[in-house]
UniProtKB/TrEMBL annotation, chains A, B:
The keyword Hydrolase applies. GO terms for molecular function: hydrolase activity. The lineage of its organism: Bacteria, Pseudomonadati, Pseudomonadota, Betaproteobacteria, Neisseriales. Pfam families: NUDIX, WHD_NrtR. It comes from Chitinibacter fontanus. Keywords: Hydrolase. This is NUDIX hydrolase. The keyword Hydrolase applies. CDD domains: NUDIX_NadM_like. Residues 6-142 form the Nudix hydrolase domain.
Length: 228, 228
DNA sequence: AGAATAGTGTCTGTTAGACATTATTAA
DNA sequence: TTAATAATGTCTAACAGACACTATTCT
């Protein structure tokens, strides 16, 4: 076979929500090209270690955060001759979600990894076309938030409806009706109401958790069909 | 970098609808492994010819059909050590749509390519995990048919609502309401009513075509939310 | 006229949006 | 008691499903 095999890498856009801000995990590149610049965590498939590319994405994230994300899904492949100075490259991008407090301590200990607010990204120069990949991932996350409970994977194990609402509103950058959220939470059958409530300044709030082994439910309609 | 680069290939699941049957284009493999068996059209990226992997998919389909599909979209990456006897492999699968009469004559002249009804696939032994990839593509096509006009890309340039309805019902394997389809056709603004009608046994039917440069519209709800 | 197919009118069902009302807690 | 937050009740809006009805064409 006379074909030059293009470079194949796996990169992940790991999101979290903290302080009503959507953040993405970036690492400082330790080698050329783009040495020292911020980039998505990722790298080459290790054919001896990784059962498949999902395993590659998980392994690379674990190396940087010490943790496995609560949600991980393929985004898309980006490819071309110009996007990597080393030559023609093919990158499989994933996007992932994690609760902020799950990884926060670990991150702090790795000086080369850092959460950066998506809204601040214009102030950074990212390696490769990683800014573009993050934009694709954000758009996909926003879209999926309209028809699923995917934002629940940004929350700690026990959480309130108000917390879920906050995370959703942070992701889609629009307010939603609490009532609509409660209806969906009920209908999805993904969550269990715990025998516990939590104090929040007024009436105690019911705590929920994701049922063990619950699949992500897709609703038949989107929230917020209207533009504002 | 000490990593063995895995094999990277691009394969496409090209669908069409003919005689109320969903069909997929398969080609007979001309080389080992799986020599002579039916497989998806695809192959290696040619870094000198292909601007990106989309171009690879297009080129491979053009080689087999002489035509460019009306619609082409990434499906997902499938990877692992066991799926190709030559070793660890990574395949980017696309799915694509074309109007049957656009490629039919060309196919006939290429003995190595053939349309096979999806419902007949259990009778065939496909190369690699291509049967699995086709199943993934079919599921995605069905899902997307519920919230977009994607089936329009299986139709000739000028078509009637009845034809569109037939194609949709073939893809999702369920009947839909003609009225609902008309409402969506109107709302989507993707189609132009031509100054022409066509005879079909009764009242003449309005002909439509996809507006030049029209983007595929996504609706806010799915059709057929109910299971039957 | 009658059969066949195209297109419309309109009522129902479901679920999201809006927002008022009630419930519960801490200070 | 008051402020704050949680939860519910309920009306409206949008749009898909159902299906009757009208329109147009051919034989």
């Amino acid at each position: 076979m006379a074909f030059k095999n293009p470079l194949f890498t796996v990169d992940s856009v790991l999101f979290t929500v903290h302080n009503n801000t959507l953040k993405v995990l970036l690492v400082q590149r330790a080698e050329a090209p783009f040495l020292g610049q911020w980039a998505l965590p990722g790298g080459f498939v290790d054919v001896d270690q990784d059962a498949n590319t999902d395993a590659t994405a998980h392994r690379k994230l674990r190396d940087k955060t010490g943790f496995t994300p609560q949600y991980l899904e393929q985004l898309q492949v980006i490819s071309g001759a110009q996007r990597d100075p080393r030559g023609y490259s093919v990158t499989l991008a994933y996007y992932a979600l994690v609760a902020h407090q799950n990884v926060s301590p670990k991150i702090a200990s790795v000086a080369l990894a850092q959460w950066i607010a998506v809204q601040d990204l214009p102030q950074y120069t990212l390696a490769f076309d990683h800014a573009h990949i993050i934009a694709l991932a954000q758009a996909r996350l926003q879209q999926k938030t309209l028809y699923s409970m995917i934002p629940a994977f940004c929350l700690p194990e026990r959480f309130t409806i108000a917390q879920l609402q906050q995370v959703i509103e942070t992701i889609i950058e629009k307010p939603i009706q609490r009532k609509s959220l409660m209806r969906r939470l009920e209908a999805s059958d993904m969550f269990a109401a715990l025998d516990e409530k939590t104090s929040s300044g007024g009436r105690l709030a019911q705590l929920y958790s994701i049922k063990a082994g619950a699949d992500l439910v897709n609703f038949e309609r989107n929230l917020m069909a209207k533009d504002e």
